[in-house]
Design goal:
Radius of gyration: 22 Å
Largest sheet: 6 strands, parallel
Strand order of the largest sheet: 1-12-2-3-4-5
Helix content: 40-55%
Distance between the termini: 7 Å
Strand content: 5-15%
Structural class: alpha/beta
Length: 394
Amino acid sequence: MGAGHDRAAAELGRRLAAAGHDYEIVDFLHLLPFGLGWLLKSTYEFQLRRCPWTYELGYKLLGSAGRLLWRTNVFICSVLTRRAVCRTLLRTSPNVVVSTYPFASLVLGHLRRTERLRVPVVTYLTDFAVHPLWVHDGIDLHLAVSEDSAQEASLRGARESVGTGPLVSDRFRTPTRSRAEVRHALGIEESERVALVVAGSLGFGAVPSVVDGIQSCGDYHVIAVCGSNTKLQATLLKAGLGGTVLGWTDEMAELMGSADVLVENAGGLTAMEAFAAGLPVVSYQPIAGHGKDNARHMDHAQVSHYARTSVELAAALEDATTPGPAREALIDAGHALFAEDPTQRIIDLVPADASGPVLVPADRPSPREVAAAVRRVPSHWSRPERVIAIMGVV
C-alpha cells in the first residue's frame, strides 16, 4: 500500500500521454464502501509499525492456503467493489484497463473471466516477489519487473506473463544535479563512501538499527531518508548517529546519484529506481511479508545482495562500494532488467474495433447511475476510443 503502486501508475500514465493516449488513474481503495479503504490502509500501517509478525503471518497464510482462500478473497473483493468498479468503467469507457494493485486485479480478473468485462485487462506486477493475490487467470496479460518474476506468475496460473522491466522515471538515469553538487550541498567529501538508507514512503522498519549496523561496518557516511515518518526522523536526529537525516524529499534521483550504495528494506520501487540509476542495492533487515520475500527474490536474481547478518552486511557493502567486478556485476544486472517499455505491450492490446459496450448488459448499474457517469466524462477526451483506465492505489 506504499507509494510504489501509485508512482508506477503515474509513470505509466505519463508514458501513455506521451504516446498520444488519454488515461485516468483510479484509486481502488476509494471504491471500497463504508470507509473500508481507509481502514485497510490504516490496518496495514499499524501492523508494520506495531506488530509486524501479524502481517508476516497473514502474508504467508494467504500465500500458502491454496485456492479456497484465494477464491474467498476474489469473492469478497468483488462483492464489495463490483458496482463501483463498473460505474468507473462506464464513466471512462476504456479500451484497456491496467491494475497496479493486487486486489484490483482480483476484481478485474473475475469480471474478465466471467465475460462481463469486454476490454483487455493488464496487471503490472510492481514487486519482484509474486504473491498469489497478484495473479488471476482472467487477466489477459501480466507484466513483470523481471523474467524470474514473469516465470513465477506463470507458475501461479497467469494466462500470459512477460518480464518487461520496472516502470521508472527517466530522471533517475539523468538527475538534474551532479554527484559533486549534491555532495557539496550536504557537506559530504568526494572521497567518502556514502550509503543511502531508505524505508519507503512511510518509513517502515528498524531504520535506527540499520544505520547503526552500517556505521559499525566501517567508515560510511549514511544518508537516511525517512519519508513521511516524522517520528523516525526525530528519533534519528536525537540519537546523534551522525551522517545526514532527511524527511520527505523529491530529490531521490539526485541522492542516488551522489551515493555509492542503496540499503533498503522493502524491495519496492525505490530499489527499481536504484537499478535505473546504476546504484548497487543491498537489502538488510527487510520489513515483514513482501519485504523479506522481495529481498530473497532480488538476491536470487543477482540484482542485489541480501545481507542477513552484520558480517554479511559488511561484505555486501564492501562489494557494492569498491570499484571492481563485483560492483559492476550488480550495476549491469540492474540495468539488464529494463528489457523493454511495458507501455507498448499495453498499447498493443488496444482493440482495432473500439465499438460496443465495455460491460455486458447484466453487469450495468441502474440507468440513473449510467446517466450520471456519462455526464462526468471529461470534455478534453476528444477521442474516447483511446482512453486507458489505470486501477492504481495511493
